[in-house]
Amino acid sequence: MLLNHLFAKLLLLALPALPLSCSSDSGPKADKPKAPKPTAAQDTTRHALDGYFLFPIKPGQPNLLAASMGELRPNHFHGGLDIKTNGTVDLPVYAAADGYISRLKQSSFGYGNVLYITHPNGLTTVYGHLNHFKGAVAQELLRRQYEKRTYELELFFEPGQFPVTKGEVVALSGNTGGSAGPHLHWEVRDAKDQQLNPLQWGGFKEIQDHVAPTVVMAAVEPLSIDGRVQRRFEKRLFTPTGAPGTGFSVADTISAYGTVGLLLQAFDRFDNAWNKNGLYRVEVQVNGQPLYAHVINGIGFPDETREVNQHIDYEYLMTSRRTFEKLWVDDGNQLSIYQVGPSKGKLRVEAGQVYDVQMRLFDAYGNVTPLHLVLRGEQPEYWQTRAAAVRKPTLRYDVLRNILRVTVDDTTRTAPNLTLLRGSRQLQLRPSYTDQSRTVYLYDLRAGLPEFMRFPGITNDQRFDRVAAIPAGEEQLFANNLVNVVFAPRTNYDTLYLQTGFKDKTWTIQNPRTPIQQAMRVTLKPAEPVADKPHAAAYLIRGGTASWAGGQWDGELLSFNTRNYGQFRILTDTIPPSARLVSRAGGLTFKVSDNLSGLASYELEIGGRFRLLRFEHKNSTLFTVRTDTLGPALRGPARLRLTDQAGNERVLQLNL
To answer: Is the peptide bond prior to 302 cis by the omega test (within 30 degrees of 0)?
Structure first.
């Protein structure tokens, strides 16, 4: 187990009158940004690509976007444009420029049926969620599917195999994979697979945008232990008034102190569309000096796209369902979209100073909305307000970055000290403030992890549930008698204060409010032997739902890789999947289901010959492909074989 020995050193020091300040988080009031890291998008000049690409759906006609490049999605930035297809499928999809089909893939997840066209300038356009491919490449795909006896397949091609010309119909639009409705997902990528914003080269006449971004909410958050916003160590939200284009402002001056960060919730709209899209660029100036900017011209795929979890306030999203963009570069964030100086966009607020904050929000068509707010520096000191109700003392705590924040409900006239304990050592924490009889205590965990917390009037010491500090940037191992976890160098964005536990046959590893970048390796150690190991696996438990995590057995240990924190159980699945024929109109359609682990493979044979089936997980259907010219006719004896993730198999006999 990882142990932090700094705690013992700290306990030998005299306690200051106020909680320790975090000088390493401090930054200048505002500074001139350094030049941003070069991105692939900057290597392609606007004049070279203005008009180069044809709009791939209904070119030359008015159209609408369902999503823009860089929108904030779960665990990724949206990598391109979602083009509306009138709520239908099978619209012609046109090659955006001359080139050749370099890759295609068919899958029930992600981009579904997706096509890649590489162009002479080295860029590649990507066409996702397709219903069907067109031309000779479609026949080659069908041949290879029968050769390998699978629908789900990815193929790569050499230049010259399947050339296409600009404006050629290469596919029909669809609703395959992870699509929530019919549309075309369209991307531009460079040779390094970075996703580039197609609107950065002047936009398209098919898409009109005269609507400036809208501000929903602004927030200010303390980032250092001496930081305060409205005298409190917590994020404070403010609702600006105003209008898109004209501008928004927060009416009241916001008191603050220490190192703070600004956050923003906003969206953009295109003409004649009500769906909310992402922003293209955000700039922040303080007292007329640049502090922060980011621009969504390009996102590295796949390495950078998951960095969205550090660009936003991930924990707040998971608890409130509200998405805030951090207008600073947080520790562990490796995105190259920023323009910041040494403070990385963090603002240091001093007592007695006034900070005039001007933000500007841009969309890709040049529409801009200003946002104005004012901060005033106010020196923190202990203050208290009392609630009328008398409460029995109760203690709770949370961890905000490196800071332990303990809140105690207590109605004593003078707030007592909180005691942190580790072994035989004790540390007295004085209160920072008391708000409605709730006293807040702050402690920097980089000084060491306590084991218990003690407060007068509470009989039992409260155990601190963070068992280790896991630094980011290098492989780390945590082990106890319940679980082993191997953290990859980029599993965590920043230092993780790890929670683990085991109760009611359920392992807890941290909590789902913590994001993961790179998968970790988990080994569970069951308290009792598992009888049916071939059908037993690890499952992620969320909201009463079990999701397959898999795993390999080594004796009595079960190991698996995961990109999720939360609760895990070992469950046994012995029930095979099921299917029923629901339609024979124009082909065969089966409804499939599985009680636990989920469908892993499927195969249809008619008269002993393989017949291709297509699977769509979002509606749990298997169906034959009407354009299939290689498979046997849908007549005679047939057999559908289904296998789930746990290895259970069911064979359905049919007579067509």
So the answer is: yes
